[in-house]
Design a protein that fits this description.
22 strands, about 650 residues, globular, Alpha-d-glucuronidase, C-terminal Domain, TIM Barrel, Chitobiase, domain 2, single chain, 20 helices, about 15% strand, binds 4-O-methyl-alpha-D-glucopyranuronic acid
Length: about 650
């Protein structure tokens, strides 16, 4: 039986799956062969396209005059998610070993559009480079008094939760699973890693709500994961301790996990933030993070589940006067000594940079330093520090730089992420899914990069544009392709990071975190700026890298300009490789960044009439705010450094 295609509620943007994208399939004759739930999904997709555009679909019929054949065949080596695609004698054939592979094959044909049905095509093999391609939702079940429904969420409420419980209506979640499959994402963690009291209960007495969400995501090959609190045996089980080596605690987790699998047989596993920003963890019992993770891995192992253990462990009560403590060092210092101690089904989930999703950070050295541990790399699609979905900031190029960065000889971050690629979701119940309609490009690019980490992000952007906007208006691609660098230009300079308003992290405040306990400082004074992380005279962080990076980052002469202030404290007159002084670079980039936003605003205005009116209006409104905010950034940063340094702008522009 074909499975009905989910229809999101009236007014919800079709994103990268507009009906039109199915026209080339829907006008033709298709044969679907094979059985299983995901094959029913494939059948449903083709049936719906045919209903709309007049084509025909048959299931398990004898071969005949079909234009497209989607069939479950071997080879087994393709795994559950791989597929082949070829075209000969006027017929396009997709073959897969598993139902998920067939679904991905169909969606590949959707991406190809008309091109899938012309000429000849040699058999191509497609399989994901990474088995786990996951979104972590930082969604709260009950609205949190400070963080709201979605922590760091800029797209309205949660897709899963409202008013303290699961949303009863799941059609939108089904439609979400469909969008995720169409960019290759196959796992979702449905609640915040900061697990508050209400959310803790999802693991036990409220697992039925999780099961309902899992049921809605399953038809599109998306498995459900849950964030759990390390203190669950105490909070939920009434035990006195949560010591990971205590037999009673281990038994509690084993029994609880068995019940989770009764409710959700294909449950993916747990995500854990422990000993981090106030969350409980194994340190309270004098145990290591390997002890903690392995206890949960043991509970999940009989059921085929995985624990994602986050490496975001640092001291958030630091004394700003103490320059020897360096938050950037923390994850490496905590976890490298544990390499080789984690169970095979424990994945250490590492943020891509050593600090916290800034617009520019070096790649975390931890990713290259744990050869005997399964690692996942964590990105942030939600734009906490990159404009909060009020600014256009397409992160594809940044993520691609991270994934292609060779940390150790021969291996880049995308290959070292054997435990998968994860992103913090940027989605909510907003009609455009991501608040800013152009922020959908981040979600799409993330999924496709997780499938193929060495893909050219600009090709992925073209793919997204082609599906979402066809025909793509002239100038639109340029608005996105350079937007990350534009954002970098008018915010914190040369890799120094932060300078945001404390708490909500939107807008400039140069000293907002300078005298705080969070470990995020720039150390600007009248003579210079930056953090000395060299081995010779600083915190030693540069020494956490293998060659050649350790040497390159060690000296201000060889350190790349864009990371100079992350690694070094230099005078304002220090001359960059670009030939400019640091202070002149700050002034120039801030003026340039704003000019680029002004130009983008005009380009967008000129696209009215070529973009669906609702979408155009929403983006125009966001651009107005981006421009206001970019000017504020420019003026605060330039004025701050002019006042500190006393050095005038060579071009004599207005600085306050
Ligand atoms: C979920 C940053 C964010 C927090 C977030 C944390 C994390 O500190 O500001 O909101 O908490 O990262 O990744 O756990």
């Amino acid at each position: 039986m074909p499975l009905p295609v989910p229809v999101p509620p009236e007014g919800v943007d079709p994103a990268w799956l507009p009906d039109e994208a199915f026209r080339p399939i829907g006008t033709r004759r298709t044969l679907v062969r094979g059985s299983g739930p995901l094959v029913d999904t494939v059948h449903g997709e083709v049936a719906r396209a045919c209903e709309r555009f007049g084509g025909r679909v048959e299931r398990d019929a004898a071969p005949g005059p079909f234009d497209l054949v989607l069939e479950l065949t071997g080879p087994q080596e393709l795994g559950d998610e791989g597929f082949t695609c070829r075209r000969e004698d006027g017929r396009t054939t997709v073959g897969a070993y598993g139902g998920a592979g067939l679904l991905y094959g169909l969606l590949h044909v959707v991406r190809l559009g008309e091109a899938a049905f012309h000429g000849e095509r040699q058999r191509e093999y497609h399989e994901p480079a990474l088995a786990l391609r996951m979104l972590d939702h930082w969604d709260n079940v009950a609205v949190h008094p400070v963080m709201g429904q979605v922590e760091r969420g800029y797209a309205g409420g949660s897709l899963f939760w409202a008013d303290g419980r699961a949303r009863g209506e799941l059609e939108r979640v089904r439609a979400y699973g469909r969008l995720l499959a169409a960019c290759g994402i196959n796992a979702v963690a449905v609640n915040n890693v900061n697990v508050h009291e209400t959310e803790a209960h999802l693991l036990t007495d409220r697992i039925g709500e999780v099961a309902a969400i899992a049921g809605a995501l399953r038809p599109y090959g998306v498995r459900t994961h849950l964030s759990v609190t390390f203190a669950a045996p105490v909070v939920l089980g009434g035990l006195e301790r949560a010591d990971p080596l205590d037999a009673g605690v281990r038994e509690w987790w084993a029994e609880t996990t068995a019940r989770v699998y009764e409710a959700v047989p294909d449950f993916g596993g747990y995500v854990v933030k422990a000993d981090s920003e106030g969350q409980p963890g194994p340190f309270a019992y004098g145990r290591s993070h390997a002890d903690g993770a392995n206890m949960l891995a043991a509970a999940l192992d009989p059921h085929g589940g995985t624990v994602h253990w986050r490496a975001f462990v640092y001291n958030h009560h630091q004394d700003w006067r103490d320059r020897t403590t360096d938050r950037a060092r923390a994850a490496y210092d905590h976890f490298v000594p544990l390499d080789g101690e984690f169970a095979p089904n424990a994945v250490l989930q590492v943020k891509h940079g050593p600090m916290d999703f800034q617009v520019r950070e070096p790649v975390s050295p931890l990713i290259g330093a744990m050869p005997d541990t399964r690692l996942a790399v964590e990105l942030q699609a939600t734009q906490e520090y990159t404009g909060q979905q009020r600014h256009v900031c397409w992160l594809g190029p940044m993520w691609s730089e991270v994934l292609r960065f060779r940390l150790e000889e021969g291996a880049c971050a995308g290959e070292l992420a054997r435990g998968g690629l994860v992103a913090v979701s940027n989605v909510g119940d907003d009609p455009f899914w991501t608040g800013h309609p152009l922020a959908q490009a981040n979600l799409y690019t993330f999924g496709r990069l997780a499938w193929q980490p060495d893909a050219d992000p600009h090709e992925l952007l073209d793919e997204w544009l082609g599906l979402t906007f066809a025909p793509v208006p002239e100038g639109l691609c340029d608005l996105l392709s350079g937007s990350w660098r534009t954002y970098e230009k008018y915010t914190a300079p040369l890799g120094v990071g932060f300078m945001v308003q404390p708490g909500h992290h939107y807008g400039p405040s140069v000293d907002g975190y300078e005298y705080s306990p969070w470990g995020t400082y720039h150390f600007a004074d009248r003579d210079g700026i930056g953090v000395d992380r060299s081995v010779a005279g600083g915190t030693g962080y540069a020494g956490q890298y293998a060659k050649p990076w350790a040497e390159m980052y060690e000296s201000p002469q060889t350190c790349p300009d864009e990371l100079l202030l992350f690694f070094h404290h230099v005078p304002y007159g220090h001359v960059l490789k670009s030939g400019k002084t640091v202070i002149q670079h700050i002034y120039d980039t801030h003026f340039e960044g704003v000019a680029e936003v002004e130009e983008a605003v005009e380009t967008w205005a000129s696209l009215a009439g070529q973009v669906e009116p609702g979408r155009h209006a929403r983006v125009a409104e966001r651009y107005a705010e981006q421009l206001r905010s970019a000017r504020e950034w420019r003026d605060q940063i330039n004025s701050y450094f002019f006042r500190k340094s006393g050095v005038p702008d060579e071009s004599g522009r207005t600085i306050f």
